[in-house]
Amino acid sequence: MVPFFRNLVPGRGEVPYLPTMSQTPESASLAAPSPKVPSVTPRPFRVKLRGSVLTLVRLPNRRQVRGKLHQLSTSGGLMNLEQPLDEKLQVELIFHLGETTIREKVEMLFPMWATQGWLQPFRFLAMPEATRNVLETCLLSFVQQAQDSTS
User: Fold this and answer.
1) How confident is the model at residue 142 (pLDDT cuts 50, 70, 90)?
2) What is the DSSP string of the chain?
3) pLDDT tens digits, residue range 6-16?
4) What domains lie within the chain, and their CATH numbers?
5) How distant is the alpha carbon of residue 35 from its chain centre?
6) pLDDT at residue 108 tops 80
7) In whole angstroms, how far apart are CA 99 and each of 1, 58, 105?
8) Does the structure show a pLDDT above 90 at 63?
């Protein structure tokens, strides 16, 4: 490679000339390192309950709304309701899975119209690790029971 001080633009005096990437093969090794790809955590598995688990939603004003779980995972789920709840509303969700009662705070997400009522997604807020483990165990046993009944 020609030293930098000798690279002058012809006819312009002392203006330095910087070669392009295609003109300097050794500059390819000087390329910027590739950006780090953020690590992606695996998405929790979801169980389709199709309304077989009843829920009770306690609103901040102490009213209660009944619903049915359509899908459930350790991060949230999808609930069937007669009337949708406001998006970003934080409520208490209570339901039974087997012999376990889950009672956790959830945030309601944007509802979708379904043929028989509304499907309203939700996500769990600050669920303790012990409760998350119990929920995951219950979901795994629910899947196991479903597999045993089909075979």
Assistant:
1) confident
2) ---GGG-B-TTSSS-B-PPPGGG-GGGGGGSPPPPPPPPPPPPPP-EEEEEEEEEEEE-TTS-EEEEEEEEE-SSEEEEEESSPPPTT-EEEEEEEETTEEEEEEEEE---EEETTEEEEEEEE-S--HHHHHHHHHHHHHHHHHHHHHH-
3) 444 455 555 55
4) 47-150 (2.40.10.220)
5) 23
6) yes
7) 76, 21, 20
8) yes
Distances, alpha carbon 35 to alpha carbons 1, 32, 38, 39, 40, in Å: 28, 9, 9, 12, 15
* C-alpha separations of 119 from 23, 66, 96, 112, 140 in Å: 60, 13, 19, 5, 23
The token pair at 57 is 């939603």
CA distance 72 to 57: 15
Q: Which residue has the tokens 């995951």?
A: 136
- Supply the pLDDT for residue 70: 95
Tokens 């780090």: give the residue: 36
**pTM for the predicted model, two decimal places:** 0.70
How high is the pLDDT of residue 88? Answer: 96
Q: Answer whether residue 23 shows pLDDT above 60.
A: no
The token pair at 38 is: 């953020």
Contact 22, 31 (CB under 8 A): no
